[in-house]
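Page 42, continued from yesterday. The earlier attempt failed because a stray header line got pasted into the input along with the sequence. Redoing it now with the clean sequence only.
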Amino acid sequence: MAVVLKSSNEIEKMRRAGTVVRQVLERVRTAVKPGVTTADLDRVAEGALKEFGARAAFKGYRGYPAHLCTSVNSEVVHGIPSSKRVLKDGDIVSLDFGAIVDGYYGDSAITVAVGGKIDPKTERLLKVTEESLQKAIAVVKPGATLGDIGEAVQSAVEAEGFSVVRDFVGHGIGSAMHEDPQVPNYGTAGRGMKLKAGMVIAIEPMVNAGKPEVRVLKDGWTAVTDDGSMSAHFEHTVAVTDTGATILTA
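This time it went through. Structure tokens are written below.
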């Protein structure tokens, strides 16, 4: 496993990419409402990306056809925007987006409610998933391990009766979208690779209301919960610094 440590100059470029990602996601978030299609959301992301002068990280990546991943309800990750997918009141949609600035990547995801009201269990799913990301980031510092991150997510999620997806994990990120190491959302504290200052990782809990198993649809991209339960996804790009963690997509 070849982990590339980033210089302060490289991390600054990634911070600029992360700022674009955050701004685009906020623009898309405000466009989420009943009657909007996921293709509409992709066009919002495309327009904002051009406005901010950055390049798309996702479009064309291994053949992916869109700027944004839009995963609705039981879709876990990598949902492809479609003009046929109309959002309804009570849906949830995960918005996953990446951008490239000066050759360096930023990557982040949020899950948002459509309309004014979602059921209480789904509302709790979103809250717990986002909190598990914050708890994972809180343990990031030199000398901590990947197991510390995984355990922070897993313990927060399972204590609330939800489950952590095993088939997809977080990742290193830098001048490539996916770099070493893999960053699982489950594990044992103290185990696994130790973090070093200069590492940059994308931490991204994917949490199911039901069981952890997922399957990929015939489009080759969209992952869904095997039991049809709701799923939430939150992600930040995080730099390991001498003093702890810096969120580059906050």
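Notes: Residues 89 and 115 are 5 Å apart (CA to CA).
Reminder to self: strip header lines before submitting.
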